[in-house]
Amino acid sequence: MAASGFSNKRSKMKRSERAKQFMPFAALKGYEEALRKKEHKVVNMPTLTEDMKDELDYAFSKIEKNDIARIVYISDDECLEIHGMISRVDFDSRILKVVNTKIPFEDILRLEIDR
C-alpha cells in the first residue's frame, strides 16, 4: 500500500470499455443533418426545351469524377437542387453521385459544372 492508504494497483478496464474511448462522437449535435438540408433545396419545376436537352447532353459528355457541380433534379415529385462534388459518374448504370446522393440521369433537369 502507498502512504496515502490507496493501492497503486489499477483494476483492469474491460476491452469493450477501452474501445469506447476511441469511438467517434458528434461534437455538434444535428450538424450532419443541417449539412444535408443545406445541400438540398426545393426549386420550381422547369420544363425542358430542346435547347436545354442539348445543353444537358453536352454537360454529361464533359462531367468527370471530382468536378464540382450544381444539379437540379426530380426526387419524390419534388424538384431539388444540389451543389457539391461528383463522387461517381456511372454511364453504364446512368447514375450520377454527388457526395452521398445518387441521382439517375433521367431525373436530372439541369447540370452546371463549376470550372
Notes on the protein architecture:
The protein is elongated, with a radius of gyration of 25 Å. With 115 residues, it is of the alpha+beta class. The chain has a domain at 39-114: Roll (SH3 type barrels), CATH 2.30.30. It is 24% helix and 34% strand. The protein has helices at 15-20, 31-39, 50-62; strands at residues 40-42, 68-75, 78-90, 95-98, 101-104, 108-114. Strands 1, 2, 3, 4, 5 and 6 form a 6-stranded antiparallel sheet that branches. The longest helix has 13 residues, at 50-62.
The main pleated sheet reads as: 6 strands, antiparallel
Q: Helix count?
A: 3
- Examine the secondary-structure arrangement and name the CATH architecture of the domain at 39-114: Roll
Q: What proportion of the residues is helical, as a percent range?
A: 10-25%
Pattern of helices and strands = HHEHEEEEE
Kindly state the mean pLDDT as a whole number? 81
Unreliable segments of 5+ consecutive residues:
none
What CATH calls the topology of the domain at 39-114 is: SH3 type barrels
Number of strands: 6
| Helix/sheet category | alpha+beta
CATH class of the domain at 39-114: Mainly Beta
Kindly provide the radius of gyration, computed on alpha-carbon positions and rounded to a whole number of angstroms: 25 Å
Shape: elongated
Distance between the termini: 70 Å
Proportion of strand residues: 25-35%
